[in-house]
Write a structure and sequence with these properties.
Elements lengths: L1 H95 L2 H4 L3 H5 L14
Length: about 120
Amino acid sequence: MREHYLLLFGAAGAIATVSSTIAAWLGARFGARRAARDAAGHAADDAARVAERAVERAVAALRPQLDGLRHTVESTAVEVERVAEAQRFAARLLAERTAAERAPRPDAAARVTPRSEFRVPTPH
């Protein structure tokens, strides 16, 4: 009768060993997949945080230069507007002049000095 128990307990032990091996293998497989998925998610989150901090540092480093550039562009815009206003004013003055005012005066031609009077002898 003892051989019967030996065979029974041996079979029960073998079944328990095989089933626990299969369960452990499945648990390890699914656990490893979940751990890999979580690690990839955390790595992506960490990479996103690192990239965000790098962008913030770059923006903070460039902020004074951007402020200076903004000031320069605004100053240039004001000067361009001033020059444009001066051109509009000059164009309006020219348009308002009459044809008689634009004609050359006869005494203006008499006041023109010939070029020979401006010549200076040079020693070379």
